[in-house]
Amino acid sequence: MTQKVAVITGAGRRFGFELAKALLAENYIVLAHYNTSRAGIDELEQLGAIGLQADLSDLQEVKRLIRAIQSHTLKVDLLVNNASCFFNNQTVDADLANLDAVFRVHAMAPYLLIHYLQSEFEAADDALVVNITDIYVDSPSPQYIAYCAAKAGLASLTQSFAKTLAPHVRVNAIQPGPILFLPEHDSEHRRTVLEQTPLKVEGGLQPMIEAVRFLRDNRFITGESIKVDGGRALNI
C-alpha cells in the first residue's frame, strides 16, 4: 500500500470530522470511527472514507473495532485518539455507568487501540499516534473531576507508549483549549472563557489540524504534549 492510512476515533463531528476531511484531501485512506454521529460519517464516506461504528465505552466493542481496522489494512500510519465524552460531576454522579464510560473512552479504549495495533504501526514508515488530551490535565477543573483524571491517564499513556514503542512508532499528545464552543455554551460562558484566554479568540479547528501535521512532519518529536489553546492554560 503506497497510500497512508489514518484511523480517527470520534470522526463524525467537530475536530475528528474536519481532520478526516483534511486527510482525505491529502490522499489518505481514512478509517473514520463513530458511535452515534452518523451524519458526518455519511459525508466522509462520500469522500472516500471507511466508516467504522463502535461504542468505545464497551471494551468488547473496542476489540471489535480493532479487528475491523485490521481487516481493512495491514498498516496504520496515523492513529488519532480523539473520541470523547465530556461529562461534568453531576452527570458522572448520576449514574456509575457514566463514570465507567469516562475512563473507558478516554484511557482504556486508547490503550487497547495502541496496544493491539502495534504490528500495523510497525508496518508503516514512521507511524504516529496523536492522543487528544486537554489543558486541564495540568490544572484539573473541579467541575469535571473524572473527565480530567481520565485525560490525565491518557497523557500518561502518551509518555509510556512513547518510551516503549520507540524507535518505530512516535506517540504525542495535543492539549486543546477554547477551540470550538459547544452549542450549549451561552454567551456569558463564552465571554468568561475568552477573557481568560490571552489571545482573546475562539481558535477554530484549523490550528488543531495544523498541530497534527506538525507532529506528523517533524520526525524528531515523541512523548511530547502541545497546547493549542490561545494561551488559556496560563490562566487556569
Automatic annotation (TrEMBL):
Keywords: Oxidoreductase. Gene3D superfamilies: NAD(P)-binding Rossmann-like Domain. The keyword Lyase does not apply. One of its GO terms (molecular function) is oxidoreductase activity. It comes from the Bacteria. The keyword Transmembrane does not apply. Belongs to the short-chain dehydrogenases/reductases (SDR) family. PANTHER family: OXIDOREDUCTASE, SHORT-CHAIN DEHYDROGENASE/REDUCTASE FAMILY (AFU_ORTHOLOGUE AFUA_5G02870), SHORT-CHAIN DEHYDROGENASE_REDUCTASE FAMILY PROTEIN. This is Short-chain dehydrogenase. The lineage of its organism: Bacteria, Pseudomonadati, Pseudomonadota, Gammaproteobacteria, Alteromonadales.
